[in-house]
Amino acid sequence: MNAVKRIIKYVKGTLDFGLHYTFETNMNLAGFCDADWAGCLDDRHSTSGGCFFLGNNMVSWHSKKQNCVSLSTAEAEYIALGSCCTQLLWMRQMLVDYGITSAPMLVHCDNMSAINLSKYPVQHSRTKHVDIRHHFVRELVEMRIVILEHVSTEKQLADLFTKPLDYNTFLGLRKALGIM
After folding, report:
1. Which of 168, 169, 159 is nearest to 39 (CA)?
2. Can you give the residue range of the structural domain that contains 70?
3. Is residue 2 part of a domain?
4. Does residue 8 belong to any structural domain of this protein?
5. pLDDT band at residue 180 under the 50/70/90 scheme
6. For residues 32 and 110, what is the distance between their CA atoms, to the nearest angstrom?
7. What is the C-alpha separation between 127 and 74, in angstroms, rounded?
8. Local confidence band at 24 (pLDDT 50, 70, 90 cut-offs)
9. Distance, C-alpha 130 to centroid of its chain
10. How many domains are contained in the chain?
11. Burial environment of residue 13 by CB neighbours within 10 A (0 to 12, 13 to 18, 19 or more)
12. Domain with 170 in it: what CATH number?
């Protein structure tokens, strides 16, 4: 009940907030993805989160509990990365339907293990548990449809959708998303 009251109080205090969009932008798609490994205390499922930009403007976001239990942080982040790529591919197809082509999609991830799993097809004993169904990200990287870029934890915009944050971090990320 306290959590519900806190949410209602937050919504009441931000009724005049909205997303800020700029005209000075491009048609490139980019996404930020993150995971909160085993964050659910009941079933130990992780939460995937992401936010997606067309140029400088955020146009989509998601936060979803993962369907399976991840055995490592790398696996949880890799699943989140796959979810992010799926959303970006859908957005890319929407742009194509409107006759708009974009550069390769840029994905920001704060986990080097997930990035390395995507870039280097070497199977290590520590990554055997990562299911084949998640390796389509590797194919996207090989075909240069997706470019992966490491982002520091402090600049990971998707943190807003995956975990509780301290007040100042929350305000900084909310502003960076264009919510004003």
Report:
1. 159
2. 28-176
3. no
4. no
5. confident
6. 9
7. 8
8. confident
9. 19
10. 1
11. exposed
12. 3.30.420.10
